[in-house]
Amino acid sequence: MENQEQTQEISKSAKLETWLRALQVAQLLAINPHGLGGVILRARSGPVRDRWLAYLNSVAQLAGMRLPLRRMPLGISDENLIGGIDLDQTLRTGKAVLRQGLLAQCDGQLLLMPMAERVEVSAVAKVVSALDNAFIAIERDGQSQKIDSRFGVVALDEGIEDDEQPNEKIKQRVAYLLNLDVIGWRDLPETDDDFLPDAQSLQYASDNFSDVIISEDSLNALVGVAEQLGIASIRALNLALNTAKCMAAFDMESEVSSIHLQRAIALVLSPRATRLPQSAPPPEDENEAPSEEDQTDDQPEESIDQDPPPPPEVPPPDPNEDQDQEKNDEEDKDEDDTDKTNSENPQALEDEIVEAAQAAIPADLLARLADLADLKTPKGMGGKTGAVKVGRMRGRPLGNMPGMPEGGKTLSIIDTLRAAVPWQGVRRAEMIAAGKSIPVGKILIRKEDFRIKRYQERTQTLTMFIVDASGSSAMHRLAEAKGAVELLLAECYVRRDQVAVMSFRGSVAELILAPTRSLVKAKRALSGLPGGGGTPLSRAIEESFEVASASMRKGLTPALVFLTDGRANIAKDGSPGRPKAMEDAQKSARAASYYSFKSLWIDTSPQARDEGKAIAALLGSMYLPLPNAGANEVSQAIMQGLKRP
Question: Which of 69, 101, 294, 309 has the fewest CB atoms below 10 angstroms from its CB?
Fold first, then answer.
């Protein structure tokens, strides 16, 4: 009972330490938001996250930020993000007037990105470009302008699964990676008012952090620690260096000390560690006698049995020696101990910092890194959504393009006006030169100004299983194939994909389950699948690709999985005979390859054969021989195979 209470107490103290580090991160971001890049905060919506954001807002206001946090809506348009033509002012003045976007308005402040794991890649690219260049370049509608913008990013990681994380480009450019999901509301102190810094210190640090210097030994120690932690990013080193300078400036010091360096490494480098640092070997004691093995290795054989030489005679100490001088030497030694460690022995400084960095590494970090190595691609077979296509009526807005509003296309009035505005002066001059009257307050629009809307749609995926139920397959692998397909059906059901099952045996290929999302129907059709008869492989290939083609015309993205031994013995016309059947199967495979559907060929024969491999090559399918695998292994192989491009 006592040990359990002690464990809970230690755990609570560790959570409190994590919270105090999070408060320190908020103070640093208020001092230098752009130089530190920002923070990725892994925390779901709740009182803990709200309290940290409130603290960050308070500290930033103390540092002089008027509106510290500006929220970036999910799915924000390019026009609102980077800026563009201000239609209202343009129509009033008759001249093209640019307006600033959200990134330009964040100059000297912090950009809040909710649900950062779901932000579009195009928006991430624009944010990253602004972080790298410290300005926004507006090149739109015939206008060009550069606007200075130096801001930091507060990216809220609200992903549920471990593979749902913010874009790697954002992660590389922010200094801090915080995880507040490990902290509960009851683990927090009653108030954070005691941890609020004074405005004078924050303002001093903001004005003077760039003047702080760092010694060469400290720089070498920083690089050495990063190497031991497995960090090869120059950006991470610069962010750690900027953090140490901000800490020194906040303490009103002109040089980075070892304490500042330790804290900076704990905040910036430790959460990025990919391996544990190697402990330094213990120093050798000059007075320690060598072991027998060392004597055996170092001394020649004929000298091993000889007596050791007598120890050198040490003269007795002088009793008249001045004791005051000895005491002074000891005091000087204690005072200069730290300076000797940092200057005469830079390795000792690195070892000291390594210990601090290792203590700050989360206990489960390396274990989670090992798990994430297998999650470079999302879970599931072919992705959670189908192929991307450009639509006319629905979907996510994808910008506009020149064209006439005909054939079901929708006119984008705002974009049409934006395209026409820059040319008003030229067109009015042309009308004056031609002696034509100019309408007052009218916008001159021509055919080339028309813009039509585009939308990005993602189609639903259809995973179709073509199962060999012939006599040869039933004797060997039909049970495993059924089990694998049933496992895969459950996976498809979770992702709301449509599934279809086709079996072929005797002289026909039969669609026993039309495309559906019903898991019950799929399992019922699969359980009643009989086995026996010939292998009409040619019919199975042709009919499966016909079903896939029909599903594509309905807006689905088909993916086909063949589970067969590939030994065709029934020709296309139903006549028996292996040579003619294999020839027909090859012809059908060549014809089906023009569809370019994603497909996977699982060779379920006891021994992999060249026949199945050759037909898979003609189809353009990925070939996987699995002669001795059970249902779980087959299903895993199929999922990994369909994830590949």
Answer: 309
| pLDDT number for residue 631 | 59
**Measured at the alpha carbon of residue 199, what is the angle toward residues 198 and 200, in degrees to the nearest 5?**
95
What is the fold of 10-74+104-196?
Rossmann fold (3.40.50)
Tens-digit pLDDT profile for residues 469-514:
876 655 555 666 667 677 766 666 666 677 788 888 888 888 887 8
Identify the H or E element spanning 218.
helix 216-228
Q: Which residues of 211-239 are buried (b: 16+ CB within 10 A; e: fewer)?
A: ebebbebbeebbebbbebbebeeeebbeb
Q: In what order do the strands lie in the sheet with 498-505?
A: 508-516, 498-505, 460-468, 556-564, 598-603, 622-625
Residue 60 Cα to chain centre, angstroms: 28
How big, in percent rounded to 5, are the helix, strand and coil portions of the chain?
A: 50, 15, 35
What's the mean pLDDT in 158-180? Answer: 85
The CATH 3.40.50.410 domain(s) of the chain lie at: 462-643
Question: Which regions of the chain carry the CATH code 1.10.8.80?
Answer: 198-275+345-373
- Give the CA angle between residues 31, 33, 39 to the nearest 5°: 115
Per-residue H/E/C for 557-620? EEEEEEEECCCCCECCCCCECHHHHHHHHHHHHHHHHHHCCEEEEEECCCCCCHHHHHHHHHHC
Q: Which CATH number fits domain 462-643: 1.25.40.10, 3.30.1070.10, 3.40.710.10, 3.40.50.410?
A: 3.40.50.410
Q: How far apart are CA 346 and CA 216, in angstroms?
A: 10
Q: Measured between alpha carbons, how far is 356 from 360 in angstroms, rounded to an integer?
A: 6
Give the number of other Cβ atoms within 10 Å of residue 185's Cβ: 9
Per-residue pLDDT band for 593 (boundaries 50, 70, 90) equals: confident
What does the block give as tokens for 621? 């399918």
Q: How far apart are the first and last CA of the chain?
A: 55
What 3-state class would DSSP assign to 69?
strand
Question: 198-275+345-373 falls under which CATH superfamily?
Answer: Magnesium chelatase subunit I, C-Terminal domain (1.10.8.80)
* DSSP-assigned beta bridge partners for residue 485: none
What's the burial of 61, exposed, middle or buried (CB within 10 Å: 0-12/13-18/19+)?
A: middle
Q: What are phi and psi of 425, to 5 degrees?
A: -65, -45
DSSP state of 279: P
Strand order in the sheet with 176-179: 69-71, 110-113, 152-157, 38-42, 176-179
**C-alpha–C-alpha distance, residues 636 and 614, integer Å:** 23
pLDDT of residue 465: 84
Average of per-residue pLDDT across 182-208: 87
Amino acid at site 555: G
Three-state DSSP state, 167? coil
pLDDT of the residue at 333: 47
The C-alpha atoms of residue 180 and residue 24 are separated, in whole angstroms, by 14
The 3-class secondary structure across 415-431, one letter per residue, is HHHHHHHHHHHHHHHHH
Q: Which pLDDT band, with edges at 50, 70 and 90, does 170 fall under?
A: very high
Planar angle of CA 47, 52, 53, nearest 5 degrees:
95
